[in-house]
């Protein structure tokens, strides 16, 4: 079964601001990728250790993972606070 997928490029054609944003984001992503690869190659060249390269990559992506965990934790705390809301300042059940 062959499915045909296509990307709708009309918003990019219609909005010059979106085109600029998309282009700048693409250039930024290419720069980030080149930096990550260059740092990995340099660490391997200096240490000859794939373990240190792995640690570098984990360190590179750990802020993203921490942010995801923080956002998930915030949602959990907010959901918990919404379900256990008590108008009594002493924390007792609502009367």
Report the biggest beta sheet as strand number plus sense, adding barrel if it closes. none
- Rough outline: elongated
**Record field, number of beta strands:** 0
Helix content: over 70%
Number of helices: 3
Structural class: mainly alpha
Overall mean pLDDT: 77
Which H/E pattern describes the elements?
A: HHH
The Cα radius of gyration reads 24 Å
Query: Regions with pLDDT < 50 over 5+ consecutive residues?
Result: none
What is the distance, rounded to the nearest whole angstrom, between the alpha carbons of the first and last residues? 62 Å
Fraction of residues in β-strands: under 5%
How is this structure best described in words?
With 95 residues, the protein is an all-alpha fold. The chain has a domain at 18-83. The chain contains 3 helices and no strands. The chain has helices at 10-14, 16-47, 50-83. The longest helix is centred in the C-terminal third of the chain and has 34 residues, at 50-83. The model has no long low-confidence stretch (mean pLDDT 77).
């Amino acid at each position: 079964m062959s499915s045909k997928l296509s990307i709708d490029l009309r918003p990019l054609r219609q909005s010059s601001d979106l085109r600029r944003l998309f282009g700048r984001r693409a250039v930024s992503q290419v720069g980030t990728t080149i930096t990550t690869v260059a740092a990995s190659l340099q660490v391997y060249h200096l240490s000859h250790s794939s373990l240190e390269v792995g640690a570098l990559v984990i360190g590179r992506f750990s802020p993203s993972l921490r942010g995801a965990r923080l956002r998930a934790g915030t949602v959990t705390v907010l959901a918990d606070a919404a379900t256990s809301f008590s108008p009594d300042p002493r924390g007792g059940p609502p009367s």
